[in-house]
Write a structure and sequence with these properties.
The protein has ten helices and seven strands. With 298 residues, it is mainly α. The strands form three sheets. It has a three-stranded mixed β-sheet with strand order 3-4-5. It has a two-stranded antiparallel sheet with strand order 1-2. Helix 2 packs across helix 4, helix 2 crosses helix 5 and helix 4 packs antiparallel against helix 5. The two termini are 37 Å apart. The C terminus is likely disordered.
Length: 298
């Protein structure tokens, strides 16, 4: 159901607009495959990516790579809240026929309003109503615990309300709505348009070249909602969060590269160890520079 706000939108091969780029390739609820029989949730127990007992990988391949900052925040935040509710065994009680998952995603992707899940058993099937149940339960459990969660809950509620009232109200927040608005405007202003032009504009929305990207054009003209400034984005590319090992590793590399006139080299650079050698091949004791390279910095 979350594709109603997490979809990127696209023009499919038949020239029809869909709200989700991934939905048409999703065939089932769960599977171990990624290249064929793609699923909402990929089941690969052998790829836990962790040696800690009880912590396994959650592999979702059903979501679009959203461009809009708020849409991306909403997509990730609501997924995190759903997983947290799952861990607490506090998810809304909704019975669902998993055999309908692929069809439901594909059919909802072809709609721009009035979404429903045919697989829901003995319950209201509207996608917005179902998502509202998740939101209300998350609000009961998590509202007031921290600023980021509160912001996510507020944006989630506002988005669902506007989707129910009129999705076009979200053209500055939700990528599929923004893209559809741009394409509809182009069609209205171009008498002799053809489907190939629409597909080209579809791709240009995602262009990472900010000079030609349709999305970045909206952002620069204040026609796209944002959460963080360009300054913070640039800063994040060079300064990892302080409570990560990446912060320690990055700063060790920067210190020896910039402060010591390249007299030292980082010999082994992994998540498990840092070994620095001087130009005379003598091993360097890191203790004078950092207390513990792998502690969690508060």
């Amino acid at each position: 159901a979350r594709i109603i706000y997490s979809g990127n939108g696209w023009i499919n091969k038949r020239g029809i607009f869909e709200i989700s780029q991934r939905a048409s390739f999703i065939e089932c609820a769960q599977s171990k495959e990624t290249q064929s029989r793609r699923a909402v949730v990929n089941m690969r127990p052998s790829e836990s990516l962790s040696n800690v007992s009880g912590y396994d990988r959650l592999h979702l391949i059903s979501g679009d790579a959203t461009m809009n900052q708020v849409a991306t925040f909403l997509r990730i935040a609501t997924t995190c809240l759903a997983v947290e509710m799952l861990e607490k065994k506090a998810l809304p009680s909704i019975r669902y026929n998993l055999d309908k998952a692929g069809v439901d995603m594909q059919m909802n992707s072809k709609r721009t309003s009035t979404w429903y899940l045919d697989g829901v058993i003995g319950h209201k099937r509207g996608a917005i109503e179902l998502m509202d149940q998740y939101h209300r339960r998350a609000q009961e459990l998590f509202l007031g615990r921290d600023l980021i969660t509160d912001i996510a809950l507020i944006i989630w509620a506002d988005t669902l309300e506007k989707l129910a009232k009129n999705p076009s109200l979200l053209w500055r927040r939700i990528d599929w709505v923004a893209k559809k608005t741009l394409l509809d405007t182009f069609v209205a202003q171009t008498p002799n348009w053809n489907p190939e032009w629409l597909q080209s504009l579809d791709l240009e929305y995602h262009n990472l070249d900010t000079a030609v990207s349709l999305y970045y054009g909206l952002l620069d003209s204040n026609n796209a909602e944002r959460l963080v400034s360009d300054h913070l984005i640039i800063k994040a590319t060079i300064e990892p969060p302080h409570d990560t090992r990446a912060f320690t590793r990055g700063n060790v590399m920067r210190y020896f590269a910039l402060q010591c006139n390249n007299q030292y080299s980082l010999h082994i650079n992994s998540w498990k160890q840092l070994i620095v050698y001087a130009t005379d091949n003598k091993k360097v004791n890191l203790q004078p520079f950092i207390d513990n390279p792998f502690k969690t910095y508060e």
